[in-house]
Amino acid sequence: MDFDLQRVGFSDLPGWHDDNPLPLLSALERCHRQVTTVKPHKTASLGISTADLMPAYTAAVGSEVHDESAARAFFEDHFVPFKIVRHDGKSGFVTAFFEPEVFVSATPDETFRFPFYRRPDDLIDIDESNRPEGMDPYFAFGRQGDGVIGEYPDRKAIEKGYLAGRGLEIAYAKSKTDVFFAHVQGAARLVFPDGSMTRVTYAAKTGHYFSATGKLLIERGKIDAADVSMQTIKQWLDDHQDEADEVLWHNRSFIFFREAEVDDAGLGPVAAAKVALEPGRSLAVDRLIHTFGVPFFISSDSLTSIDGGRPFRRLMLALDTGSAIVGPARGDIFTGSGDGAGRLAGAVRNEADFFIFIPKAAAARYGHGQG
């Protein structure tokens, strides 16, 4: 592997004694419920298993920990921190994501015209057992029709009507950009005119490569690189609706959703770990390297927008992943749901130090210089 793990003490974690990891205890309980009643999380290449994490999961269930000092002591009792040191000498890197809140209608009209789609029947999973000769190995989805497997129609084809009339619409939004950013985030809360709410979460995608809209707008001189954020991208798209389709179609990837209840309005969607995300404390990681349910302490001097001007220093739990989240020290911070969370997430692109918390019983397997 292209990184080492360097064992450190809790006193070596910047700001550890000022952090309040109490919300993670309930997240550990949710992990315990998932891995004991459904199935364990897959052990990734670093080798930390659900069995390694089980003592901490079990101790969190019904825990009497009720303050931040005791919460820190809980993690000190069950884990050993290691700094992730990349061989290329570079720091880690964090971005952020959130769950948009979108006003919708169950039926289309002149105002609500842009649909969220369920997964279509002709979209199939692709792996090495059925991949046609010559198809890009990147594709994990494809279209099956008349016994032939090929690429699924892309964003442009779908938005020009490929799926029309098939009854796949979940709801309709007022703004195409609202739908697009729900695609980027992989989930959304949908709010209907009567105030009722449901949630849509990722179900599948067409399989095409994701292309960053912000990068395209920078390259075309539409937005200054220093100003790019989710908010500035959305503003440009809203202000240039005659050009928006062509820009959005540049990103050929298209996301399909499934409906889910909003069981607890204080929690985020159920993500890749099949556990509801804890706002401000959940991290998307590279699932090929890191096992879900592992805690990470993230320290970034330059990321000051989330904690009121203070450097970001938080213990987080690995509960999600993403196609852009690649590498041992790469993370995506879940800031929560709604516009406020979107403003927090929009401009996060910061270097950060990553400290992985390895369960005590497993820590002996990971010495300095191993990775």
From TrEMBL:
Family annotation (SMART domains): MltA
Keyword set, alphabetical order: Cell wall biogenesis/degradation, Lyase
Name of this chain's protein: peptidoglycan lytic exotransglycosylase
Enzyme Commission number, as recorded: 4.2.2.n1
Cross-referenced SUPFAM superfamilies: Barwin-like endoglucanases (SSF50685)
Domain Lytic transglycosylase MltA: start-end pairs: 101-258
Catalytic activity: Exolytic cleavage of the (1->4)-beta-glycosidic linkage between N-acetylmuramic acid (MurNAc) and N-acetylglucosamine (GlcNAc) residues in peptidoglycan, from either the reducing or the non-reducing ends of the peptidoglycan chains, with concomitant formation of a 1,6-anhydrobond in the MurNAc residue
